[in-house]
């Protein structure tokens, strides 16, 4: 009888191919899966998985651990949610290549776009690199609780080549375009998984300037894509607003055509064109029929902002009466907020200063889109539970109810995208499309306003188990979040439970799978705070055949490594 490192016995195996679930054993040795089926040999360790789900590890293709990975060995919250591989360097932002004079500019850009405290980045980043190759070497010397891949970011390339002219939105010269293309290709040859760029008005520095990549012309994007394509490897990632679908699709198609490389682009339902996502999906399908591999990255729930008195945003953040007590220690501030005279002063000031509170896309006082974030959180809430609807039933103003909730320590969740119809049907439609992939979790980013690193848990819990109508097959969801995301970024060695593939997997008690409300943790460098979200139900998570988490608790093992370039499927 053969002896394995680990044998997981009698679990309900969903193997990532989309095939029907089955009861089977899974054996692991030397970091790979050795058998799936009836395993006769024993293991140094045996795990009883009767009644539990056994699936591959999740592959999250859209995160922003660019900074955190330089100071932290645990890429949480993603690692708490069954994720065994993450890809950072998305949206055209990152910290390499760079010259010392522009390090702060890249920090300002990341702080503005991804809501990561600049003080934390300033203290945490060691800046022992200038080239992207040196950045990869630094990451390659570190250990993590999951595998990390990264992409070369367009904004950093522009700043490296153009300096202040990139920040000022100047058009690149032909020589500058060639240099950016050369650097991008060199980064991909050195192990970057691809190239990313941003063309959205939402991406701005802390000073309010648009991200440097926004002003790049189509000829610059095409030149970089062509250089990446010449390497014969790498992927392309784009975020855009689709304000002009025809123009954006022309650019995307051109990038793919000249490079021959696959491209993903962010997609969500928005308020200015609620059915526009359908047009984009149709156009992607047309491109695919022409042999142009484009896919949309889509969220698995509404895209929203978490608001609270200790977070980046809340309805009273510019209120002068609130600002007079905002700096008090939490206990004293809570006591003051409970006083009737404080409440009266804040509400009166809110009325006078209402125009000034409407920042961030006029979202922080959109009470009809705002919900109390409960425990467990409801990410497809009943519209009648909005702050506006609750206040109307109680015969008072929504702003007063919001005050009472926040003063009592509540968090509020305002739905930004994918909620135009007050349901997640657009999300279901996008998830079910053959032209999409689950993504956009932004793990590691937006630490004071968004907590979506838990997307993979929502995928199983909400779409595979709990939604009253319109659920999606569990086998389909696992394939999409494990195998399809892996192959989309060239990681063909993972995402399947089959002999020879990476021993990245989860054992999950599906009946007990449950998200908790996000919590504020003050554990960033320089004492910075961030939102983190835990989940119940993850019994065992393995990376390279090593258990990293047991019942949600760290095992102390750090088998994760930097991924350099595409990874081939096992032979045979």
UniProtKB/TrEMBL annotation:
Source superkingdom: Bacteria
One MF annotation (Gene Ontology) recorded for this entry: hydrolase activity, acting on carbon-nitrogen (but not peptide) bonds, in cyclic amides
InterPro entries in alphabetical order: Amidohydro_3, Metal-dep_hydrolase_composite, Metal_Hydrolase, Metallo-dep_Hydrolases_sf
Region (Disordered): 553-572
Coiled coil: none
Domain Amidohydrolase: from-to ranges: 45-549
Any Pfam family hit: Amidohydro_3
One Gene Ontology CC term in the entry: cytosol
PANTHER family: COLLAPSIN RESPONSE MEDIATOR PROTEIN (PTHR11647:SF1), HYDRANTOINASE/DIHYDROPYRIMIDINASE FAMILY MEMBER (PTHR11647)
Record protein name field: Dihydroorotase
Lineage, opening ranks: Bacteria, Bacillati, Actinomycetota, Actinomycetes, Cryptosporangiales
């Amino acid at each position: 009888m053969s002896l394995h490192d680990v044998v997981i016995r009698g679990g309900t195996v969903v193997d990532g191919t989309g095939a029907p679930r089955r009861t089977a054993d899974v054996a692991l040795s030397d970091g790979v899966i050795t058998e799936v089926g009836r395993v006769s040999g024993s293991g140094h360790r045996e795990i009883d998985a009767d009644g539990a789900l056994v699936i591959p590890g999740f592959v999250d293709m859209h995160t922003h651990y660019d900074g955190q990975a330089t100071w932290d060995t645990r890429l949480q919250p993603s690692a708490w949610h069954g994720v065994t591989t993450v890809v950072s360097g998305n949206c055209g932002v990152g910290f390499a290549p760079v010259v010392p004079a522009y390090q702060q500019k890249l920090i300002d850009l990341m702080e503005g776009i991804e809501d990561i405290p600049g003080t934390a980045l300033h203290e945490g980043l060691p800046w022992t690199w200038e080239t992207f190759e040196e950045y990869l070497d630094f990451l390659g010397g570190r250990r993590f609780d999951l595998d990390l891949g990264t992409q070369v970011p367009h904004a950093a390339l522009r700043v490296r080549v153009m300096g202040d002219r990139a920040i000022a939105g100047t058009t690149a010269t032909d020589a500058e375009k060639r240099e950016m293309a050369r650097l991008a290709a060199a980064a991909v040859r050195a192990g970057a998984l691809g190239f990313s760029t941003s063309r959205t008005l939402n991406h701005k520095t802390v000073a309010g300037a648009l991200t440097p990549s926004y002003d790049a012309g189509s000829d610059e994007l095409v030149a970089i894509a062509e250089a990446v394509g010449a390497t014969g490897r790498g992927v392309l990632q784009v975020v855009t607003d689709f304000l002009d679908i025809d123009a954006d699709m022309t650019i995307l198609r051109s990038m793919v055509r000249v490079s021959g490389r696959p491209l993903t682009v962010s997609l969500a339902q928005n308020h200015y064109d609620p059915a526009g996502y359908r047009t984009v999906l149709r156009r992607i399908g047309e491109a695919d029929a022409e042999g142009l591999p484009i896919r949309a990255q889509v969220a698995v729930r509404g895209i929203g902002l978490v608001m609270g008195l200790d977070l980046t945003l809340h309805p009273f953040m510019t209120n002068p009466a609130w600002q007079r007590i905002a700096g008090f220690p939490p206990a004293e501030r809570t006591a003051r907020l409970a006083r009737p005279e404080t409440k009266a002063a804040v509400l009166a000031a809110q009325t006078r200063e209402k125009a000034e509170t409407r920042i961030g896309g006029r979202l922080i006082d959109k009470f009809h889109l705002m919900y109390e974030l409960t425990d467990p959180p409801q990410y497809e809430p009943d519209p009648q539970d909005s702050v506006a609807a609750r206040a109307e039933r109680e015969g008072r103003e929504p702003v007063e109810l919001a005050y009472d909730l926040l003063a009592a320590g509540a968090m509020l969740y305002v739905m930004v995208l994918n909620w135009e119809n007050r349901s997640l049907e657009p999300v279901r439609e996008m998830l079910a499309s053959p032209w999409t992939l689950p993504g956009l979790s932004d793990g590691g980013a937006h630490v004071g306003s968004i907590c979506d690193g838990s997307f993979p848990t929502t995928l199983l819990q909400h779409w595979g188990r709990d939604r009253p109508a319109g659920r999606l097959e569990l086998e389909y969801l696992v394939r999409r979040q494990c195998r399809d995301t892996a192959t989309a970024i060239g990681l063909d060695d993972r995402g399947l439970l089959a002999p020879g593939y990476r021993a990245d997997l989860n054992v999950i008690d599906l009946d007990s799978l449950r998200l908790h409300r996000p919590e504020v943790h003050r554990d960033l460098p320089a004492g910075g705070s961030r939102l983190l979200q835990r989940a119940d139900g993850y019994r065992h998570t393995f990376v390279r055949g090593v258990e990293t988490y047991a019942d949600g608790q760290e095992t102390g093992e750090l088998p994760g490594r930097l991924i350099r370039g595409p990874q081939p499927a096992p032979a045979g």
